[in-house]
Amino acid sequence: MTSRREFLKAASLTLGGVGVGLAGLRLARAEEHEIEVAASTLRWAMVVDLPRWIDLQDHEQVFQVCHRAHNVPDFSGLADPEERIRHAIKWIWDEPFANAFPGQHHEVMTERYREAAAPVLCNHCESPSCVRVCPTQATWKRDDGIVMMDMHRCIGCRYCIIACPYGSRSFNFRDPVQGLDPGSITPSYPRRMRGVVEKCTFCSELSDGSGGAWEPECVRASQGALSFGNLRDPRSEVRRLLSERFSIRRKPDLGTNPYVFYLI
Amino acid sequence: MQKDAWKVAIGVAVFLGFFTFPIWYNVAFGHQDWEQPVIADAAGNECVMSRAQIRLDHMTLLDQWRNEVVRDELRFRPGVEGDLRTKSITRTCMGCHTDRNEFCGRCHQFVGVEGQVFSEVFCWDCHVDTVEVARRDEP
Amino acid sequence: MFEHVFRGGYRYWLLVGSLLALITAGVIAYLVQYNQGLMITGMSRSVAWGLYIAQFTFLVGVAASAVMVVLPHYLHDYHEFGKITILGEFLAIGAVTMCPLFILVDLGQPRRIMNVFLHPTPNSLMFWDTVVVFGYLIINIVISRVMYESERKSVAPPKWIKPLIYLSIPWAVSIHTVTAFLYCGLAGRPFWLTAILAPRFLASAFSAGPAMLIILCLIMRAYTRFDAGEKAIGKLAEIVTYAMVINVFFVLLELFTGLYSDMPHHMHHFEYMYFGLHEGGEVHANLAPWMWTSAVLSVVAVVVLLIPKARRDLRILGPTAGVVVLALWIEKGLGLVVTGQTPDELGHVVVYSPQPLEILITLGVYGIGFLIITVLYKIALSIREVETG
């Protein structure tokens, strides 16, 4: 029969250990909070003008421009039709309005929006769920708001895909070379290897590092339906658009605070 | 122990076979290239580090560059002559050392870190060999 | 100590041989996956976690529930469990070895696993899960080794082992709580975003683990001279009964909240599980037969276990324990992980069906775990037999 003293010693050791662990967690969350609260002169955001997007005839070329520029593989030619869906890699694509904005769809909508498709991509959230859960910091939030990917560090655990409420991320189930045409690879941008996760990074490779804005590929090809800029700059196009017109975001009640805005 | 000696002998033989696999496999099926490759000097400006340093440290350097460019957004560094150089294999290193098989591959294969089946050097799984692409696209 | 592993009857060698064959097949299948990528599995852009992670989740529960055997013996001096604590510990070791193996086979870049330790990330639950599961493995190995050595030498165990055993109890609860936290903190996954997920995990763990232990004890009774004793097995059966009742109750609670609330993003997951959902003109209901089977089996098991005469009859208890394990494996090993991702975040239904190589790899990992359990039990048994003469 062990003494009560020994039991109390062991119990308090355990509690102490748990306490230290919790403190560590609290510390980490405090750091996260600091990143959110610290003022930055840069906050990149995208604005989608839905009426203009709906009027745009060719959406596919906008997506192709992005996918070509970033060597995103195209598996639509795979033999197995199920694998075409299962292994698809998409950075930006169209979703029916009901899927992009669940809960906003009802039976008496205007025809225009009932049949509409909205472009969906990574929202570069202010409180990204994916960053929170990545065990290796292979994805992280930059000070300027962009949620970045480090393909070298990614272990392919796919926890980020599980956590992302928007389905923005894709995993390389197979070697991307199988979906790339060697003649049309963009040499200045790397491919990925099988086993890592990828997503839109707001074309951050086009930035010259000076803090000035750049034009992401999709924006350039969208004939004005998509805009991109620095939300903290009072003279930016995105700031102007958002202050003049009402905008909605995807799943806003989840606390992720997404920075892709959709003008109605 | 005496009557089990044959079991032990088999076990030892199997173990030795596995242990010396790299040697007898290469003798039987592999390259007979025992000469250490000699890399020719490249044309062009000074490298980003001195020759002795780079020989020792190029792995660490590339790892550092990788983290600095991707994670810290620090894309440029001063070169040996003070000018700003881009931290990039394809843009900086291969500007002078144009053939990666000739320059990188031969030593890596000789040492055994790059090969058909097993490769520590996975850069080219993702990064595009711009020089090779340019050469292929030449009329 | 290890010499006992190599001395055994033909049935022992048949078991070991079959497990080795299974492991070999699994390893070969894994080499294919390592070469080609996770495309050989049934996972998709929409269902990114499948059989492997589900097995991890189920086995963390089994590993945690070894504590159910240790707790009564050490905290409450329930000496009837004295003989089987070591079996519970060994089952835990087998289970908690399979857990990181399932994670490893699930990774897209397994060679980079050290990144989790080189770049610790306290805000990620996956980091903490890795820490606590490895810690649990080490604790259990140390405890088993020390307790086993003391028993072999017929001396009292050293004093410092007691605090470690006491530590292992909340630690066991924590490994399964942290695993539940992997799921239940995700705002984007309403099926998992429930506070009752951790209690559910614990309830199903404390049913499945002791049930597995009952089966193992009965097997030992049938094929070896080791008898855990009817009192000990009976007590385990009582634990399984209580835990199973609580587990079924928790499932009903979940069903109520999900279905009464009428919220589409809750309801759709339950609908998919039990009835299937429409997508692209067809109904996808591949999970439904499994879930209904699990539901029926759970209720049958609870009813049987609640009848004292049935519970005490070891010929009925054995199969019932098997039914419990099967029902809970379906619930946690298939139901939980896949349903949470179907429909996906964009409301689409992309069906997940495990593929042959994926199943082979899974069986291979189970083979490794069961081989470890077999070998450890063989050692424990042989020592006991030497002692008892």
Structure summarized in a few sentences:
Chain A is α+β, with helices and mostly antiparallel strands and about 260 residues long.
Protein model, in words:
The complex is a heterotrimer of chains A (264), B (139) and C (389). Chain A has ten helices and ten strands. Chain A is of the alpha+beta class and 264 residues long. Chain A folds into two domains: 1-38; 42-263, 2-Layer Sandwich (Alpha-Beta Plaits), CATH 3.30.70.20. In chain A, the strands form four sheets. In chain A, strands 8-1-10-9 form a four-stranded mixed β-sheet. Chain A has a two-stranded antiparallel ribbon with strand order 2-3. Chain B is mainly alpha-helical. Among the domains of chain B are: 46-87, no CATH class; 98-139, no CATH class. Helices cover 54% and strands 4% of the residues of chain B. Chain B has helices at residues 5-19, 21-28, 51-70, 89-96, 100-111, 123-126, 130-137, and strands at residues 76-78, 84-86. Chain B has a two-stranded antiparallel sheet with strand order 1-2. In chain B, a hairpin with a 5-residue loop joins strand 1 (76-78) and strand 2. Chain B starts with a helix and ends with a helix. The model of chain B has no long low-confidence stretch (mean pLDDT 79). With 389 residues, chain C is mainly alpha-helical. Chain C has a single domain (2-388), classed as Formate dehydrogenase/DMSO reductase domain (Formate dehydrogenase/DMSO reductase fold, Up-down Bundle), CATH 1.20.1630.10. Chain C has a two-stranded antiparallel ribbon with strand order 1-2. In chain C, strand 1 (277-279) and strand 2 form a beta hairpin. The longest helix of chain C is centred in the last third of the chain and has 33 residues, at 356-388. The model of chain C has no long low-confidence stretch (mean pLDDT 91).
Cα separation of the termini of chain C: 17 Å
How many distinct folded domains of chain C?
1
Helical residues, percent of chain C: over 70%
- Largest sheet entry of chain A: 4 strands, mixed
Supply the CATH class of chain C.
Mainly Alpha
Distance between the termini of chain A: 73 Å
CATH architecture of the largest domain in chain A: 2-Layer Sandwich
Q: Indicate the overall shape of chain C.
A: globular
CATH topology category name of chain C: Formate dehydrogenase/DMSO reductase fold
Q: Which sequence of SSEs, written as H and E, runs from N to C of chain A?
A: HEHHHEHHEHEEHEEHEHEE
Using the alpha-carbon principal axes, give the shape of chain A: globular
Helix content of chain A: 25-40%
Number of domains of chain A: 2
Which class do the helix and strand fractions of chain A yield?
alpha+beta
In sequence order, what are the helices and strands of chain C, one letter per element? Answer: HHHHHHHHHHEEHHHH
CATH architecture of chain C: Up-down Bundle
* Order of strands in the sheet with most strands of chain C: 1-2
Number of strands of chain A: 10
Chains forming the largest contact: A-C, 68 and 54 residues
